[in-house]
Design a protein that fits this description.
The complex is a heterodimer of chains A (311) and B (503). Chain A has 311 residues and is of the alpha+beta class. Helix content of chain A is 31%, strand content 21%. Chain A folds into 2 domains: 255 residues, no CATH class; 52 residues, no CATH class. The chains are: A alpha+beta (311), B alpha/beta (503).
Chain lengths: 311, 503
């Protein structure tokens, strides 16, 4: 009798364990907070209960941060240096691992304008080949890469850690709404990340006879010859790859004005210095008052506040 | 005194008559003056003899002049008649009375009123003739404006607006754009310029050839037809010398042997980029299924090329510039058969007004059209979203403007020097600009240039005043075109037919 009771209890508890673990542990989502981090004190990751298949999640406070590693977004001035470090370490790591990667979308647009990240950008966009992705998934998934970054001579070098996480849905080549991103390169200290998408063969176009068509899971379509052979160029001081027909890709995605307009997102491209500068409210008002946003030469538009309030 | 003059006599002068007698006397005409009238007095009055005129009683008071006294002996009151009651009053009288005023001009019964006079006018033939002429002239003017003048003016305006900052918030040429590996701009060797320092007699010629694409046989045939002499002639290719055709290596060998110049085309660009990953490795060749058909062909070609070919491809500049020929005759505005100015040789095209250093290399090797407003080029003939034009249209308009010496005031600026010049010109004021306009500024004005290009086989041979397109689609069974330029600046077009090598 006692034996039966204890056996029953054992089976019952086993049943309970299995069902509860089935609810939380066996469902595929990004690695649990406890396993990857101990700061901040608790996870700020969105649960996305309405999308159970979604693997990567974002923080509750911003779309561009990983909530497991951050509790608040960075301010504008700090973000830039962290993004640059994110990029440098990513390029270096991919080169070490032998993955073929290149800049795309917003990052490519920044490259085109002045070989730098656009100041209003909160994330970076890159692409890799299918072969590289398979290699990374097989050998480097959930790897943490430790870097010590250069710093001013008197200060110690910055120690940063980066996590490479691959989405297990990468094997599925069809267009998905929730699992568009195939991999992420995440800055563990700040929660910033790089979205990595893969350029795949377009199976449907292939069956229709168009053999050179490529596709990405986020619904972009490209022609093989527009991307390859990749060009080598510099970006933020590092050697990067860019697509072959970079200008065409940019114009198709963003329109002609993206490659010509000097005013965007409350920033102005300083033609003399060749960089994007944020407009302060007073400058914005001055420009609007002078009607200088439209019309007038783009040279000689001083963006310093000294000329605003001459003494 | 007046009485004495008039011969006025006493009332009771023995002439007492009855009133009826007086009336009778007054009303019947007298053949002669009565006795009591006295001596006649000379007056200057030339009108009717009022007193003795039978119609006197009906004369109105107005005909009686003020200073003209007539011979009379009757009291003045008798000369006053009542005719004034029947006479018409003048308009001034009724100034304050509006009742009768309405019908004054519009009285239909009156001859001189407005509707009647206009009706008469309209009915008249002369007026109708004039009206017809005016209407026809108006219609002609209106339609000539709408169909000819207005579209032309609108087009001029639209073309000009693309160059000015007014309508847009930026322009092509401000962003850093892509990077060219190699020499971007190269000037032709001075020894090879016809009529230049190496050619005092003016015997040399320049032979420009369109996209060869590996058609070696046709190239040799063309050179023969042109009468190419390696001692005096120099061959310049407009890029795309290899790919697609039957004998790519042969064409490169020939070009190297002739020491020909060429600009880099989009296919050479592709080959050079692919070479960075493919050459020097022992990796197995990529199949077309793993890459693309074009890439597989390029990979195959790269394996056939030798280092000297690779060096030749790498030496190809983005743009080749040729100075204006010294012996060329004076240039004219519409002369398509002569080239007197600087020449720029590129593969696909150049955007006007943007400095050559700022042109994006990708577009220089691929463009076919330009966006209207931002002047951003495109490899397509017509962009899907924006409004685009063939780039040579805008190029020709711009250089024609430079040729005529029209000002570029208000056009985009691309460098600090240009900006400083503009600031200087602005600070001069109207007097300074007037002085410049009359006597000319000291600095050199921008000169127009001729562009020689290939790349657009569908458009075929395109000879305009400022742009010469030489790609006539040889590899697809069209023609291979050469433009021969002699020392005097005269151009000659020579063509040979090609076999269709496109599979």
């Amino acid at each position: 009798m006692g034996f039966n009771l204890s056996k029953l209890a054992l089976y019952f508890s086993l049943l309970v364990c299995i069902t509860t673990s089935g609810v939380s542990g066996l469902v595929k989502r990004d690695a649990p907070y406890e396993q990857v981090n101990d700061h901040p004190t608790f996870s700020h990751q969105k649960t996305d209960k309405d999308e159970p298949d979604k693997y990567f999640h974002e923080s509750t406070f911003s779309e561009h941060y990983d909530g497991r590693f951050a509790e608040a977004p960075l301010i504008y001035e700090d973000r830039r240096s962290h993004l640059t470090a994110l990029l440098h370490t990513y390029i270096s790591a991919m080169q070490d691992m032998g993955a073929e990667t290149w800049l795309m979308h917003g990052t490519l647009l920044g490259w085109y304008w002045n070989r730098a990240i656009l100041p209003w950008d909160s994330d970076l966009d890159v692409m890799i080949t299918e072969r590289s992705l398979h290699h990374l998934a097989t050998f480097h998934n959930m790897s943490i890469h430790h870097f010590s970054l250069p710093s001013p001579p008197t200060e110690p070098r910055l120690k940063r850690d980066y996590l490479l996480e691959i989405n297990p849905h990468y094997k599925n080549s069809s267009v998905e709404s929730v699992n568009k991103i195939d991999a992420r390169w995440i800055d563990i200290e700040t929660g910033l990340f790089i979205d990595i998408t893969t350029l795949r063969r377009n199976a449907t176009a292939h069956s229709l006879g168009e053999v050179d068509e490529m596709m990405v899971k986020d619904k972009h379509h490209y022609v093989y010859d527009d991307i390859f052979p990749l060009r080598v160029s510099s970006f933020e001081g590092a050697a990067v790859n860019v697509p072959f027909a970079y200008a065409e890709i940019l114009v198709e995605e963003y329109g002609e004005t993206a490659l010509s307009e000097v005013h965007f997102e409350n920033h102005r491209f300083d033609v003399e210095r060749g960089e994007w500068r944020a407009l302060r409210y007073a400058e914005l008002v001055r420009f609007q008052r002078q009607g200088a946003l439209l019309g007038g030469s783009f040279w000689g538009r001083k963006l310093d506040s000294e000329s605003l309030f001459p003494d | 005194m007046a009485q004495q003059e008039m011969g006025y006599q006493d009332d009771n002068d023995g002439q007492e008559r009855s009133l009826s007698e007086w009336q009778q006397e007054l009303q019947t005409p007298f053949p002669r003056r009565p006795e009591w009238a006295g001596a006649s007095v000379e007056t200057s009055y030339a009108g009717p003899d009022l007193l003795y005129d039978p119609g006197y009683a009906s004369h109105s008071a107005r005909t009686l002049r003020h200073g003209d006294y007539t011979r009379r002996s009757a009291p003045l009151i008798d000369q006053v008649s009542n005719g004034w009651r029947n006479s018409e009053k003048t308009a001034g009288f009724y100034a304050a009375e509006p009742e009768d005023h309405d019908l004054r001009l519009c009285d239909l019964e009156d001859e001189g009123s407005c509707p009647n006079t206009t009706a008469d006018l309209v009915r008249s033939r002369r007026f109708r003739r004039m009206l017809a002429v005016v209407l026809v002239a108006a219609v002609v003017l209106y339609y000539s404006w709408r169909w000819y003048l207005q579209p032309r003016l609108q087009e001029e305006w639209d073309l000009k607006q693309g160059f000015m900052p007014a309508r847009s918030n930026g322009t092509y040429g401000i962003a850093r754009a892509g990077h060219f590996e190699g020499t971007a701009i190269k000037w032709l060797d001075p020894e090879l310029v016809p009529g230049g320092e190496g050619d005092s007699k003016g015997n040399r010629r320049l032979v420009f050839v369109g996209d060869i694409h590996g058609c070696k046989k046709e190239l040799l045939h063309l050179l023969e037809k042109v009468g190419f002499d390696a001692k005096t002639d120099h061959l310049i290719a407009t890029g795309d010398t290899v790919s697609k055709g039957p004998d790519n290596v042969g064409v490169l060998d020939e070009l190297i042997r002739l020491k020909a110049d060429s600009v880099r085309g989009n296919h050479e660009d592709r080959l050079l980029e692919a070479a960075k990953t493919l050459l020097g490795t022992n990796l197995p060749p990529e199949s077309a299924a793993a890459t693309s058909q074009g890439y597989a062909k390029d990979a195959k070609l790269l394996r056939e090329l030798k280092p000297k070919h690779m060096r030749y491809l790498r030496d190809m500049p983005l743009m080749l510039r040729i100075p204006a020929l010294p012996h060329a005759s004076a240039s004219r505005r519409k002369d398509k058969d002569r080239v007197h100015e600087n020449i720029i040789v590129v593969h696909a095209g150049v955007v006007p007004h943007v400095p050559l250093e700022k042109q994006d290399p990708y577009f220089v090797m691929n463009m076919r059209s330009i966006d209207d407003r931002t002047h951003l080029p495109s490899a397509l003939r017509e962009t899907k979203k924006g409004k685009s034009r063939p780039w040579m249209e805008i190029w020709n308009w711009y250089n024609d403007r430079l040729f005529r010496g029209r000002s570029l005031k208000g056009f985009h600026l691309y460098s600090a020097d240009e900006y400083e010049e503009e600031q200087l010109a602005e600070s001069q004021g109207w007097l300074g600009s007037l002085w410049d306009g009359v006597f000319g500024t000291g600095k050199a004005k921008m000169k127009p240039q001729v562009v020689v290009y290939g790349h657009d086989s569908k458009a075929g041979l395109q000879m305009h005043r400022w742009s010469k397109g030489l790609d006539s689609g040889c590899v697809a069974g069209g023609k291979l075109t050469a433009m021969v330029l002699d020392a005097k600046g005269k151009t000659e077009i020579v063509q040979v037919g090609c076999k269709n090598y496109k599979t």
